What we know:
The chain has about 450 residues and is an alpha/beta fold. Helix content is about 25%, strand content about 25%. Shikimate-3-phosphate binds next to helix 5.
Amino acid sequence: MKQDLYSRNLTSKRCKALKGDARIPGDKSISHRSIMLGALAVGETIVSGLLEGEDVLHTAMAMRAMGAKITHGDDGLWRIYGVGVGGLREPDQVLEMGNSGTSTRLLMGLVGGHNITATFTGDASLVKRPMKRIVTPLEMMGATFLSRSGDRLPLTVKGAENALPIEYRLPVASAQVKSAIMLAGLNAAGRTTVIEDHPTRDHTENMLRHFGVEVEVEKLEGDAHAIHLLGHQELQGCAVDVPSDPSSAAFAVVAALINEGSEISLSRVGVNETRIGLYTTLQEMGADIEFKHKRIEAGEPVADIIVKGTGSLRGIDVPESRVPSMIDEFPILAVAAACAQGTTKMTGLKELRVKESDRLLMVANGLKVCGVNFEMGEESLIIHGTGKSPEGGACVETALDHRIAMSFLILGTVTQEPVSIDDAAPIKTSFPNFIELMNDLGTEIGTPDDSDELRLA
Length: 457
Ligand code: S3P
């Protein structure tokens, strides 16, 4: 029987230059939203390129439990037959969200705006994550919540009988909170407004428009803007072609950059301005990254990305204002910084403490056992690269965090000794063919060789 590589620990060994073309799986944020909006629409929605990772499959299961018909054909297409805004039915069972914070928070918005009750739970990582940020605005809209302690999962949401439109200024830069309010606002009588001081990913806005809903964006002082949405608009089923995920592409991009002589090409990657902070940062570090054939497809900008590894990254200060546009990319930036010449300073990282793991701590732990010189603060990380390959020869703890797992496997492609991770299972939440795709490009990721001596993290 074929061994499931993702069910166990894995090792990444120093490899040669990466070469080839790859198609990175679909964008996770857009995939979640295509299922949710399709399930609320009238008529048929056909999704191609959907990310078939565990997180998105949890969203699909929940939407089925709330009345949408969702099929996955032999042609690879997902077809969704929605119930119409206001038409969600109460799920019979507890909604199991696995590792997925995006599913949980956005679906709480949907339930909060409907006159139904649902209970959410998740894995050991998700039950630790803060939900107060969602509870506060949804309570203002008329939903009520019952939770065990500190608004963590398991949590029951009793949706509003008649959802109230609100005006809400986000206290944290969070696309999940923004989206939850907008999804609840779809079923509110009147205009819901969300004010963001710093732009976060705007896929909910773009996709609502794609489904025929009017969303108005008003520019305010500085970086701030208000998003206005009138409730009770009908969503019309449509075709969605999901672009490749720039956050997943980042692993292949950094792998190519740190392995001198590499040249890879990634087709049709999403390059929405609110998502590509890492790419700008890498270019400032001296990376050779080219965006070709930039175009808009299904309301989202996409491009083909060509990366050449010149082996000459240098450390920089990452502007704090850029954090929301690269919020998921700090673990892989840390890997690039560990291989760069000089110091890379990252600040404003408070939100990393409440991701799938305490990501700041888990990155620091991994860097430490791999022999990288760094300083970690409450909200900052300063990495001192030497321009030479870090030591490696360690096993990194991943704490149910897919991005920690993938980042340190990429570090292992250049370290003097192999790098292992203790658990590859979380990778399936967002990048189900990571090992196969990376190894096709030239990495050497596989099960640990018994002869490797590994220091345990
Ligand atoms: C996401 C928003 C971000 C991001 C997450 C996906 C989304 O979370 O970290 O991976 O799809 O809206 P926050 O909104 O909590 O920053």
